[in-house]
Design brief:
The complex is a heterodimer of chains A (422) and B (242). With 422 residues, chain A is of the alpha/beta class. Chain A is built from 13 helices and 14 strands. In chain A, strand 13, helix 9 and strand 14 form a beta-alpha-beta unit. The longest helix of chain A is centred in the C-terminal third of the chain and has 34 residues. Chain B has 8 helices and no strands. Chain B starts with a helix and ends in an 11-residue tail after the last helix. The chains are: A alpha/beta (422), B mainly alpha (242). At the A-B interface, helix 3, helix 5, helix 6, helix 7 and helix 8 of A face helix 2, helix 4 and helix 8 of B.
Amino acid sequence: MRHIAYAMLACVLAFEAMAYAAIAPPSNVQTADTPNDVGNQVDVTWSLSPDDNGKGAVKGYVIYRVTIDSAEGLESTASATSLAGSEPIGDVAYGKTDFTDENTTAGTMYTYGVAAVNTSGTSDIAVAALNVTPRMEYINRGKLWFGIIMLTISGVVIWYVRYAKRGGDVKVRKIAGLEAVTEAVGRATEMGREVLFVPGILDINDIQTVAGMTVLASVAKTAAEYDAKLEVPTARSLVMTTARETVEAAYLAAGRPDAYDENNIYYLTDEQFGYTAGIQGKMVRDKPAACFYMGAFYAESLILAETGNSIGAIQIAGTAMPSQLPFFVAACDYTLIGEEFFAASAYLSGDAQQLGSLKGQDVGKVIAAALLVLGCFFATLAMATGSSSMIATQDYIKNNILGNEGFVPAAAAETGIEGDNE
Amino acid sequence: MIAKRTIPLLMASAVGFLLILTYFIPQTEQWGADAMEMFIILAAAAMVLGAGNLVMMNLAKVSRRSEGWGYAAITLIAFVVVLVIGLLKIGAHGTAVSPANAWPSNPVQEGSPFWWIYQYGLVPLTATMFAMLAFYIASAAFRAFRAKNVEASLLLGTAFIVLLGQVYAGYWLTDFLPADPGDTAWSQFLNGLRLENLTQMIMDVPQKAGNRAITIGIALGIVSTSLKVLLGVDRSYLGSAD
């Protein structure tokens, strides 16, 4: 009996000893200056400790850092002891193999070390073989392709604006929704009812609200010419102020400054559904003959459009919120889909310069289509042939031209990581 | 004219182009967020304009006894009650540091009347409005899915598949088809006909393709509109009479 008890005790002690045995440190610690930053970040990576098998032997990893005299070379001379004497700069959970130190100073040389930890203590510190000096980048190279594409499209838009200004021929297809603006305002005039213009629920810093204001200018001018009453309930104070300026100028341009009443452009509330309820009540009580929804909309789009439909109003909507477009298409008479909404101002004004900008947009579409076709072509070839050059080309289009890896492909950049260490 | 149109236009252009530039420079990447904070402060100050307008409009309605003036009166009462309770922190408890004083407390302190109004007044009202959406979706779908022509019939068929594919009935209807795609083309084809797989395919291929086409158009429209605004080609938002 005593032997059994000793054996059990031995087992327990052996188990305890196993639990508190020193854990193996991680290996292959590497450091690199985080690209495209101001030199305040360093990426640290490592290979998992052999004991990190997800069964609790390793609870996480602790990262250490020491500052090195910049006179020292690329090779790290810091010892695990010197790192252990420093305060840990961060920790991550088990299974993780990377950490970003976001508190470095550009131009200062560092050595990093990583140790595995469990409840009984820490492992030896694995020290990075190379020192690293974070550098400040003056240009975010990851965004260079984006910059080139943006500059090209912007350049083409500006060129076409100037081309139209010089008297160049610019033809634009008919947009049914915008052709119907005059019809809608005219109908409201004939019926002796008002025109309701809803500029969306976002503030004036949103480009959709700005685009909505430019459409409002045209609607207000038509309303002034037809002597129709125009009401603009807004969800933001700044939109109300802007809308008042826009409508007043439109009435002035139409030669009807006397017909302008600023009380017809008013603020309801910033609250999404409070605003919706306010407009809905207005619609049901006053039954406007024409409703315009031009701007950014969320869930209220269908509530507003269905209410307008139920009172028999002619409805024209325009938004750049793809998720709301199906609702407007289902409930409104005309819907300006995405780019048509942004083209509305140019189309309605008939101004040659503005119409020229639409031509520039078309060139942007050609560039987008070319990239799509090229991407599909190389992806198909890569899949069919398995050729590494085709796969590389496909990846370059995806990750560099359309992604944020800049000019240099990732594989080449990885080699360059070594260059960041010194 | 200069103060009202030219100076704002120049300021908008300068700040707009500057912020575009800062997007590409790591040192100044934060400037966009800083500008947004300035805008938020400006918009918060402009709230006074909106609140003033709200009070004036509703007071006028009540005093004229115009149609629906009762709603205007309710709006005014609610506005004043919430404003007073919120600003004076009526019923709010003191903090641990200053137990007798409610002023330093959190404006939306749990259990306070202001919190109560939000939790049991505004939230249910908002939820009610949102819930109405279900009925509006049904009525809009009823009209949109009428099989008037070939396109509408296609839309109806697609919607039918997608709707069924999202619920258990769809799974149950095509449960007899193989759940495992297997190795043969025939078994993969049959597996693809299961309503949940067909729905996924519709969402992943035609829906996503159409959605992305719209998104590309929107992105180009934003570039073009932004340029028109920054270059002063489109000045209608400034109240231009041109």
